[in-house]
What we know:
Elements: E1 25-27, H1 40-46, E2 47-57, E3 60-65, E4 72-75, H2 78-98, E5 110-120, H3 139-160, H4 179-195, H5 213-229, H6 233-237, E6 240-242, E7 245-247, H7 249-262, H8 264-277
Parallel strand pairs: 2-5
Antiparallel strand pairs: 1-5, 2-3, 3-4, 6-7
Helix pairs in contact: 3-5, 3-7, 3-8, 4-5, 4-7
Amino acid sequence: MLPAAACPVMRDNVLQAACGCSQHIIPHNKICEAPQALSSQEERKREMQCNALIEEWPRESMAFFRELPGCYCSAPTYQALLAVIPDAIADYLKWIKANDITMLDEFDGQIDVRIAEHILAENGTIGPLFEADLASPDDIEIDTALNVAAAARAALLELYEQVSPAQHMHRLSPESWSLYEHMQHLLESEAWYISRLQEHPIEPSSVTPPAGIAMAFFDNAMDYELALRALTPEQRQHIYTHNDEQWTAAKVLRRMTEHLREHYPWMAEIVREIHHGGKTA
């Protein structure tokens, strides 16, 4: 199985904590130019505030940012998480630029991260619904999240197609997942996330054969994009409850985009091992 702590971005960084127990200000970088008068518009361009949403699980803490769909990081503890947030954002900004996703207007200033919400997972099994998840996403936010999801899927499919069909079942260890198992899990998970926005969801149960999984992954994504864009104003703000966990359209977008990007480093590691080790099965 996959490790419980799931973030590839685990590098140390300097943290500046503001006074108070509920808020930390974490500068992403520092501007070393001599002080000079700036207009309010220039100040806004040079500074951006991101509101971190922290989910704390028994053996893992995770950070999400509604302003940055698909940006996430995790660490074994809350304090360790605070240290890796700046690098996670830096890597994310590089990633969206490399994928031609327009989200920020050539921002190169300082990013301040505020811990807006910090919630423990209920019973260690139920993901929280943040206050930030309650606001209805507009068309632009949905389009941005879907662009992130599409870029993440394209990267995953590229990895999958870099090896031969026989190598899709290769595992790094007996207890780990193969490329095919990652893809099957992602296929099922996307269907599951979308189903959270239904009053009576049908749990995904079918298994797609290896030969057809890439096409199914792509085709299903097109259907999900249409479904999310077609959500009515009422559906976008509605709170759905399934197995005691609350869901909104914003929460689905947050978790779905993060989950797609989360699997890339694991699958990339398998591909590297296959190429370097010359595995054929």
